[in-house]
Amino acid sequence: MVLSKYLPLPLQTSFMPKKKTTGKKGKKSPSFFDAPALEFLKTYLDNPSPTGFESKGQKLWMEYIRPHCDTIFTDNYGTAVAVINPKADYKVVIEAHCDEISWFVHYITKDGFIYLRRNGGSDHQIAPSKRVNIHTDGGIVKAVFGWPAIHVREPGKEENPSLKNIFLDVGASSDKEVEEMGVHVGCVCTYEDSFMQLNNRYFVGRAIDNRIGGFMIAEVARLLKKNKKKLPFGLYITNSVQEEVGLRGAEMIVNRIKPDVAIITDVCHDTQTPMMNKVAQGDIACGKGPVLAYGPAVHNNLLKVIIQTAQRRNIPFQREAVSRNTGTDTDAFAFNGGGVVSALISLPLRYMHTTVESVHQKDVENVVKLIYETLQSIKKGQDFSYFK
Asked: Could you give phi then psi for residue 3, rounded to 5 degrees?
């Protein structure tokens, strides 16, 4: 299936470095992310990369990171890995996943309406009245999630949105007309919502989970190159596919890289908004820094290095307990390849798996800083064993 060609949108001026901002001594204080980085972030987030169809977004990512690494390779299913010091024996991974949740065309009715199946954890409750792009071999077909008007719904007997009753309308009158538009069972569908900035503070959009992670690890590579930092090991900057359907891309790539250490970044739930339960979900807040996870998959000695680095560099951080599994690619790295020393650095996010996922810009900066500084705290051939 060919995804439609992405047409770059102009960079919003509010994302440009603030030239008039001054520090304590009146010197200019540029934005942490430069203008090209922010332009890439917008383009990368708006480009559709549904699970199983990530290649177009991966091409954007590889184009951006290429000047900051020594070599790049990909695997059969589309995971992309940029490498610094590829000849080094000791290997450290920093990883994110690039896929976004979406829908598959599942059934087309005789009168031209379309029912769907999830591709990943798509939320049926947010679907009604959303605009959708159906990706076909001939390009994008526009569609909407229809829903009965409030005037015709019987009070007390209203149905909640579910996979049984949400449907797409492409403006067709028959299944034959739908097929003539190029739409068939198996076509993938994505929301068309795009990137925005909220109150000059939050980055907002669909698929921030977790293409923002791909942006952050690429920024780590850019800063290493910009600041001429030499690492005593091979760094494998890994942007994995198919996390949203069971960590599949990470499971595949860990066996190819065979790393010694893996630092994973993904998103976690901000719990400060209405209808969130802190007793169940913990006390996590956007704007208060990266979140460090405790759980069986997280190696305590690597976590200790990360915490000490944050404290030494005055990088704010939060903590969460994750019980059995992290639910992220950390599990795929920790429990494969003979057991890779792994840790998770999460970015607090509001409204996960909606089209208005929101993250605080300062948290994005601090995740990049924490990974960047932690890499410089890891020694060549470092032994993280509990029994040394």
From this structure: -75, 150
Is the same domain home to 37 and 175?
Answer: no
Residue type present at position 235: L
In the chain, which stretches have pLDDT less than 50?
A: 1-24, 26-30
- Quick check: 239 and 217 in contact, CB under 8 A? yes
- Residue pLDDT, tens place only, 324-339: 899 999 999 999 999 9
When divided into structural domains, the chain yields a total of 2
Nearest Cα to Cα of residue 218 among 47, 46, 347, 61: 61
The DSSP secondary-structure symbol of 11 reads P
Residue pair 195/202 in contact (Cβ under 8 Å)? The answer is no
228, 83: one domain: yes
Please give the residue range of the domain that contains residue 48.
13-100+206-375
**Cα atoms in the 13 Å half-sphere on the side-chain side of 38:** 19
The CATH number linked to 77 is 3.40.630.10
| Cα–Cα distance for residue pair 223/105, rounded to 1 Å | 42
76 vs 81: CA distance, rounded Å: 12
- Residue 150 pairs in a beta bridge with none
- Write down which residue in 191, 223, 238 finishes a domain: 191
User: Model pTM?
Assistant: 0.91
